[in-house]
Amino acid sequence: MNKEELLLEIDNLSVTFGKGHRAFRAVDKVSLSLKKSEVLAVVGESGSGKSVTMMALMGLLPDSAAITADKLMFGGQDLQALSTRAKRQIIGKDVSMIFQDAMSSLNPSFTVQMQIGEVLKTHLGLRGAAVQQRILDLLNLVEIPDAKNRMEVYPHQLSGGMSQRVMIAMALACEPKLLIADEPTTALDVTVQAQIMELLARLQRETHMAMVLITHDLGLVAENAHDVAVMYAGQVVETSVVPDIFRQPAHPYTEALLQAIPELAVGESRLHSLPGVVPSQYDRPAGCLLSPRCPYKQDRCGTPPSMQISAHGLVRCIHATLPKRHEGSQP
Questions:
Q1: Where do the domains of the chain lie?
Q2: Looking at beta carbons, which pairs linking 243-249 to residues 24 or more positions away fall under 8 Å?
Q3: Rounded Cα gap, residues 59 and 141, in angstroms
Q4: Judging by DSSP bridges, how do beta strands 6-17 and 24-35 pair with one another?
Q5: For residues 281 and 273, what is the distance between their CA atoms, to the nearest angstrom?
Q6: What is the spatial distance between Cα 110 and Cα 178, in angstroms, rounded to a whole number?
Q7: For an engineered disulfide with 310, which of 28, 80, 136, 315 has Cβ 3.0 to 4.6 Å away?
Q8: What Cα–Cα distance (Å) separates residue 215 from each residue in 197, 218, 312?
Q9: How far apart are CA 116 and CA 168, in angstroms?
Q10: Interatomic CA distance for residues 98 and 100, integer angstroms
C-alpha cells in the first residue's frame, strides 16, 4: 500500500486491564490500516475487542488500562509522540467517534444546541451567530426535520433515531478526516437502522472522509465497506476486502460468521453455529484461541499462529493454505 494513501496505521496495539494474575489482555497485538476516503469494517461478536481498540486510539480508556503499540499513526503523525495538548487538536476534530448508544452518550442536562456548540467552540473557535448557523447547517445535513426548533430541545425529547442523528451531527461538526462509527444502529428499529446507515454512507461519499465501521452485522459490511478486519477474543484473525471475503473466507471463524447469515443459508434446516464460547480471562488456550471451537483443529493448533498472507489479505491460521473449504475436505 502506498504510504501516502494511508490515513490510519495501527501496529501491534495491546490493551490490558488489571495487574498481576488478574491482568486481562482485551486487545492483543492488533494491527490495522485504513486509506484516505475509504471504509474499514471491524467485525466480531460482542467482547472481541472492537470498541476497545478504537477507544484506545481516541484516548478514551480509563487510567487502569495499560496501552502499548509499536505504531499509532494518523495522517503521518505519531500519536504516541504528541503532547496531550497536540492530541486534543486531532482527537475530536480530525478524528471523531459515534458511540453505540446515543441516548446515553448525550448529556441529558444540556440542549442539542449547547452540546454541538461546545464542540464548535472548543475545536473551531466559533462564537455567536457563526455557532448558531453552523449548528443549524449540521442538523439540516443529518436530515433532522424542523431543525431550528430542535436546536432547543433536550435529549429526552428526541427519539432514538433523532438522538443518533444529533450524535452524527456532533461527530461531523469539525469535518473530520476519520469517523469511527461504533455500532451506529444499536437499539434502533430496522427502518431507522436503514435510514441511519444510508445517511452515514451518503455523508462519507460526499465528504470523502474515511470511516471505521464497528459492527457484527455482515450485511452492513457488504453494503458499505471496502476492507474488513475480523476480530476474535481480542485478536485480528483475518483481514480481507469486499466482496472477496464473502466469496473466499480464509479463517474458520470468518467462515462460521458467514454461515450464520440467514440469507446465505437458504435450503439449510438450521443456521450454522460454533460450539462453545469465546475464551474468558482464565480459560484462554495456549495456542490458537479458536481451537477449542474449531472443526479443523489439529495437534499443531496448540502453537499460537502468526498472521500470514492469504488470497485477499492476511489470516491468523495454520490451515489457511489448505483446500478444506474450497474442495469440501477437512484436515
A1: 37-61+85-231
A2: 244/311, 244/312, 245/312, 245/313, 246/218, 246/222, 248/311, 248/312, 248/326, 249/325
A3: 28
A4: antiparallel
A5: 23
A6: 26
A7: 315
A8: 12, 8, 21
A9: 10
A10: 7
DSSP 219: H
- CA–CA distance, 200 with 179 (Å, rounded to integer): 10
Provide the 10 A C-beta neighbour count for residue 259.
15
Please report, as a single letter, which amino acid is at residue 104: S
Percent of the chain that is helix, strand, coil (3-state, to 5):
35, 20, 40
Residue 168 identity: I
Backbone CA torsion sign across 52, 56, 59, 63:
positive
Amino acid in position 269: S
Q: CA–CA separation, 240 vs 225, rounded Å?
A: 11
Along the chain (331 residues), what's the average pLDDT of each consecutive run of 10 residues? 82 94 92 97 93 95 95 94 91 93 88 96 93 96 94 94 94 96 88 92 95 92 95 97 94 91 71 85 90 92 93 89 43 35
Are 173 and 203 contacting, i.e. CB atoms less than 8 angstroms apart? no
Q: What is the pLDDT of residue 209?
A: 96
Separation of first and last alpha carbons in the chain: 34
DSSP structural state of residue 307: P
Could you tell me the pTM of the whole model? 0.91
**E strand or H helix that includes residue 30:** strand 24-35
Take residue 8 and report the three cell numbers written for it: 490510519
Q: Which residues, at least 6 apart from 326, have a Cβ–Cβ distance to it below 8 Å? A: 248
H helices of the chain, in order, are 50-58, 84-90, 102-105, 112-124, 129-141, 147-150, 160-172, 190-207, 218-224, 244-247, 252-259
**Coil, strand, or helix at residue 78?**
strand
